[in-house]
Amino acid sequence: xxxxxxxxxxxRYSRMIxxxxxxxxxxxxxxxxxxMTIYADDQALFLFEKREGFTKLHFRLxxxxxFLAPQGETVAAFLTYRNDRRPSxxxxxxxxxxxxxxxxLRRHTAAAITGALSLDGVxxxxxxxxxxxxxxxxxxxxxxxPCRELFExxxxxxxxxxxxxxxxxxxxxxxxxxxxxxxxxxxxRKLYRAYAAVKAQAGKKPVFHEWISPDNAASLSMFKSxxxxxxxVMTDCYVLLC
Length: 242
Hints:
By secondary structure, the chain is of the alpha+beta class. The protein has two domains: 3-109 and 237-241, no CATH class; 122-194, Gcn5-related N-acetyltransferase (GNAT) (Aminopeptidase), CATH 3.40.630. 27% of the residues lie in helices and 32% in strands. The chain contains seven helices and twelve strands. It has helices at 3-10, 24-32, 88-96, 127-137, 140-143, 187-201, 217-225, and strands spanning 17-18, 36-40, 44-50, 55-61, 74-82, 100-110, 123-124, 154-158, 164-170, 174-178, 208-212, 229-241. The strands form two sheets. Strands 1, 2, 3, 4, 5, 6, 11 and 12 form an eight-stranded mixed sheet that branches. It has a four-stranded antiparallel sheet with strand order 7-8-9-10, sandwiched between helices. The longest helix has 15 residues, at 187-201. It is globular and about 60 Å long.
């Protein structure tokens, strides 16, 4: 299916029960990359997106339809909503299908990142090495990493012996991991400032978004020092083990 034919199909379904929030450019890239599978009937539109280690579900329902889950796979769905407008209908539907809510994240934004922007001591990281390090500290769903066909690049700070001390994945959602023995040394700040430098060099709009667990005090402190402030947007992750 092409992106244009998907748009025609999408018009049949109400957004009454939905988490279908992807931007057109993201959809086009996923269709072009061959990582989207579609199931549709007269009540529901399901998009199954191949990710690294799980399947990501996007849905648009006319009514509370039954869900056709891929067998033998972990399926995750993310609901994004304003803090004062919880997506109760979509959340209720996911729970009825057997999904478990595993985490809530709050979005923080910054018009720019404070401090000197520099790539000094930071290098680009090969895909396999980036995925290997991130998988040490996050489950596939927690990292929400795309499949390797859509790898978007990563930055790395290395220790003196050459092993990775910290990595930042430069996707639609940034993912950062710092080795336990290297924490408290400012590596996270260094990676974010390097990412801001990469973005500035590419002439891209200097607006940054980051999702942080409300109880992650260390990250909240770091992001505040970088110029991030919380807004009113939340996201919940729901997981189904098939």
